[in-house]
Amino acid sequence: MTRYDPENIFAKILRGDLPAERVYEDDETVAIMDIMPRADGHCLVIPRSGARNLLDATPAQLTACIQTVQTLGHAVMTAFEADGVTLQQFNEAAGGQEVFHLHFHVLPRHEGQPIRPPGIMADPEALAAHAAKIRAVLAG
């Protein structure tokens, strides 16, 4: 397995080198909006410390991430009046991973509504509005 690259896009976001629409932060994790959302409210949970993926993450990193995933799952269901939540997590290129910093996708889902195809950039204003809805629920 390749070593962790501290120049990956999520590491740059964590350092403040790149912007992101943050919706949640604690000592161990950050949740940001996915800029190519497959559903309204699609967000990503990432550990603050470097881990390439599930295969090299520490138990503490995984625990912190999954606790935040649960928090965000509840928040997006409420914010988007969703019927359910899809959780996605990919490991290594062959497993579908594109950014090599551990991350979990949290997608609010509605009955009968398919997820959008990958690779479509979100409108920044819509993304900001979706983030505000999630933050409001979390503050709530």
| Rg result | 14 Å
The largest sheet, given as strand count, sense and whether it forms a barrel, is: 5 strands, antiparallel
Going across the major beta sheet, what is the strand order? Answer: 1-2-3-5-4
In DSSP terms (H or I, runs of 4 or more residues), the helix count works out at 3
Shape: globular
Q: Quickly give the CATH architecture.
A: 2-Layer Sandwich
Structure overview:
The structure is a single chain. By secondary structure, this protein is of the alpha+beta class. It has a single domain, classed as HIT family, subunit A. It has 3 helices and 5 strands; from the N terminus they run H-E-E-E-H-E-E-H. The chain has a 5-stranded antiparallel β-sheet with strand order 1-2-3-5-4.
Summarize the structure.
This protein is an alpha+beta fold and about 140 residues long. The protein contains 3 helices and 5 strands, in the order αβββαββα. The protein has helices at about 10-15, 60-80, 125-140, and strands at about 20-25, 30-35, 45, 85-90, 105-110.
Looking at this protein, list some descriptive labels.
HIT family, subunit A; five-stranded antiparallel beta sheet; alpha+beta; 140 residues
Layout of secondary structure:
Elements: H1 9-15, E1 22-25, E2 29-33, E3 43-47, H2 59-79, E4 84-88, E5 104-109, H3 124-139
Antiparallel strand pairs: 1-2, 2-3, 3-5, 4-5
Helix pairs in contact: 2-3
